Amino acid sequence: MEIVGSIFVELVNQILTPIGKCCKYHRGINRYMKILNEKMEELNSRKEDTEARIRVELLPGRKLKKEVELWLGKVEQINSEIKILQEEIGKGKYFSRSRLGGVVFKKIKEVEQIYQRGTIDEFEWKSALAELKATRRGPNMMGPIFEKLEFSYNRLKDKRLQDCLLYCALYPEDYEIDRNDLIEYLIDEGIIEGMKSRQEAFEKGHSMLNRLENCCLLEGSMDYDKTKHVKMHDLVRDMALQLTSYSPRFLIEAGAGLKEIPEEENWTEDIVRASLMRNNILDIPSDASPKCPELLTLRLNYNILMSISDCFFTHMKCLSVLDLSYTSIKNLPESISDLVSLTALLLRRCEKLKYVPSLANLKALRRLDLSNAGITEVPEGMEMLSNLKYLNLDTRNIQMLPDGILPKLSHLQFLVFRLNASETMKLRGEELASLRKLETFIGRLYDINHFNTFVRAMVRKLTNYILQVGFHGFLEEAIYPYHPRKTVLLTKCTSSEGMLGEYLYLLPNDVEVLQILECHIVKSLCNLASLNNVTKLRKCYIAECDGMEYVLSSSSSCNGSLQSLETLELNGLCNLQGLISRERGASSLILLPPANFSSLQQIAIDSCPKVKELFMLEWLPHLQNLEKIDIQSCEQMEEIISATLDQDAGGTDIIKITLPKLKFLKLWGLPELKSFCSIGKVMVADSLQEISIWKCPKLKRIPFVDNEPCPPSLQSIDVHKQWWESLEWDHPNVKDVLQPLCKFWIHE
């Protein structure tokens, strides 16, 4: 009876729990428990580190000490609660799994919050470092200071974290280290290894750097373009230099102003890493041949280096990472071919490089970076690099890749070519499709058929790609590998190249950016590609497509939806008549599928002479996220928002037009524009900040401002003074209120 009663109680609890969450927690309890254990491991590691700092009294007598003690008590409490939870889960009652799964899920959030509160305040720690720095010149202080810093280093326990920190010492003092670049090096060095994918490796790398930042052994920062960096505090770097002066031994002269490589006695046999980056070394003498049998890493990047003697690498048989990026090297020595342990050869922006010896023997090579290098052909023996995972050929000088090489590089995860370098640099779809481990790809395919072959084979989706068909010297947007944009660039497509049923192209389902240039046979997106499964498209740019009449068709055969679209740019479409075609008698539901354009934030139209109106009135409910309207040089544009055909026939109701997020309105070179909306007398845009109107002689009212009150956020109105004086106002005093915001143009 007790068992039956227990089951009954659990069943009642299940019924009271929402079915969706019940199933979610029931299925996910094992995964949630794994996550919780990982979070607890991190939390307890931070707890140990905090206790260690208190013991060595790095922060004696500070006011946060009491808060730290309370936090330690909270960690003890959560440990006890999770132990009880684990015991209850271990009893294995089937009907209690969903309830316990929900408890575990909540505990994950709770542990994350405790973890975030658990740093001995970062500013307190930085303050302590500043105090230590102020006393560093005292001869009696250096020993105790480094003892305490080394103690914090040892408390990391994880050797990979320690190696990561020491690796940062290879950079010059106060150097801002790009996080992504650093993680690439950590992968090269084997400090990050065992990951199934590059994405997992980068996640691991960021996790390691976050932990070092949380321990205040690294300082984080961010550029204006949101590029993240880390930097070593100079005291921490001094500690790292001291540690690497004996074991593991590093030779570090980064940013030291050297004009020559260090003397031979500095190249001891037990050196494992050497950094001479950011110096003024011009060449390496012919008699220089350091005996460094254990050397794994040599960084000579950012030097004016023009030549290296052939014997320089003779006694570096274990060399794994060689970085000659940003040098003026012209010819690599033949001895490079004998570095059979080399896993990374980095020649980024070696613009004067003309010769690379055969790479056939470098079978351990995993990363080859020739981006912006001066060579005009791919290196000999590249087809033998069967372990290569990273290949960057983003250079304008290489004209083609010989057929048959790519299928032999079956482990490639990262493959990048220059898009606008040469019309002859094109790739075959079937060769790319053979690269089953590929995660990042940027390159141009031969034609539509090769494009469709590759897209069809993308069963395991790429995490990052730019696929181009056709050649155009102009690219609308520079997109780089670390920016996770999934982009398709279509240029000069013709029907003779191939057809996919009624569509030309098979677009990837997860494409985010679509750019179409000079595709004159395309009348609308609906006959270019099926949009049914394209659910993540964020930006669409269409230019110089003479055949395009509408972006979408209202016909029943076009079921595409642009509900995820955030930015739409149309340029130089000489026959474009509107966004969506409409026929007399068609209902508004057919004219615009539900939620279409519901995410649209920006629309820009330039040099489309046949467009008479932009939006239809029925679309307003779907345009509530619109922030920017930019219309230029559309000679026949009469109004921005038009009535449907039924409303054109009659109707006198005053309609309120509301665009709550609109911030920027630009109307330039629209000689026929008479109104924003002919049937809307009340227009509201409370977020409007900037209005710019130029060469719109028939427009007699400024949209959204001829009301009381005016938009509270309005900052500027850019117009010609003569046109301003000719405007008509429903509320005359509004003109006086707005005039201080006007910036009058003097010249036409």
From TrEMBL:
One of its GO terms (biological process) is defense response. InterPro entries: At4g27190-like_LRR, CARBOXYPEPT_ZN_2, Leu-rich_rpt, Leu-rich_rpt_typical-subtyp, LRR_dom_sf, Plant_NBS-LRR, WH-like_DNA-bd_sf, WHD_DRP. The keyword Repeat applies. Residues 33-88 form a coiled coil. Keywords: Coiled coil, Leucine-rich repeat, Metal-binding, Plant defense, Repeat, Zinc. Residues 595-702 form the Disease resistance protein At4g27190-like leucine-rich repeats domain. Pfam families: LRR_8, LRR_RPS2, WHD_DRP. The keyword Repeat applies. Gene3D superfamilies: Ribonuclease Inhibitor, Winged helix-like DNA-binding domain superfamily/Winged helix DNA-binding domain. Its cofactor is Zn(2+). It comes from the Eukaryota. PROSITE patterns: CARBOXYPEPT_ZN_2. SMART domains: LRR_TYP (SM00369). Residues 170-240 form the Disease resistance protein winged helix domain. One of its GO terms (molecular function) is metal ion binding. Belongs to the peptidase M14 family. This is Disease resistance protein At4g27220. It comes from Ziziphus jujuba var. spinosa.
